[in-house]
Structure prediction request, 344 residues.
Amino acid sequence: MANKFRNLSSKLFHLARSSFNRTSVRPRMSFPGRGGFSVARPKLWGALGALSGAAGLLIYALETSVDASSDCVHPPHQHWNHSGLLAALDKESVRRGYFVYKEVCASCHSLQYMAYRNLVGVCMTESEAKAEAEAITVRDGPNDEGEYFERPGKLSDHFPSPYANEEAARSANNGSYPPDLSYIVSARKGGEDYVFALLTGYCDPPAGFALREGLYFNPYFSGGAIAMAQAVDNEVVTFEDANVAASAAQIAKDVCVFLKWTSEPESDERRLLLIKVTLMSAFLIGISYYIKRFKWSTLKSRKIFFIPELEAQAKKEAKEAAEALRKAKEQECNKCENKNEKQE
Prediction:
């Protein structure tokens, strides 16, 4: 498919170049009304359109060829409730996803860009978020005596990292570094579809695929070999809501919604702002259009005609008026000269 698009784009490019070469250079001419340039040079516009279409097809062909050459399976698209233009995140799913992260993912992955205060008003009340923050211990200081001390966490504290540094993280994971999950949905192509497919896509390797010790097969991961073991399975956690089944798909879905929120905490506010701006703009544009039509109605509705006979008649009348004015001035001058002669 990519080769077909490339061939088509090359043909369009050659066609556009030949159109440029065939375009003759004409003297500039003035045409009445608008669109004189487009009337004078239609081939140039056609060549520009052909070039634009060829460039678009070439970009699409390159994009599809890159996707086709990927070394992993493309994640299938899931129907998320928050994927619509005016859809909001499911706050209950975000709350369950935080619980899954705390129980399953927090032992390896960090959320260094998220603070406990971000949970307030989204999936927890202020008292619940304070209780979550106080469950951790934060090294703070120095105090008045210049010493560091341990204190309970506060709402302003960020989520703790499971490891002291990158070297400790690699040492505990056979040389692999677990990525931070704060913006993982925005950072990976496919977004939450990729994360969901990765969490639920573990399977046995195909025949002939050799796995090193400490690696697991996942067709959605680049190369197929991933250092993270399967973390999501049926009944791996127990939800507070007994009506929600703790299946692997439900657990993966909730943690994906939570990571979508951590990647874009202000997404719901942006959608709400979009609704407000759209409503206000519709009202203001209607008022502005009415005022414009009202103010410019006299200029827009007037008609100007050019008739050669009337122009010739107007020139003749102007010439006669100028001649009459010249004669009147001569008569006045003659009267003044006659008066002067009589007085002498």
Observations:
- Confidence is low (pLDDT under 50) at residues 23-40.
- The longest strand covers residues 137-140.
- The radius of gyration is 39 Å.
- The longest helix spans residues 308-343.
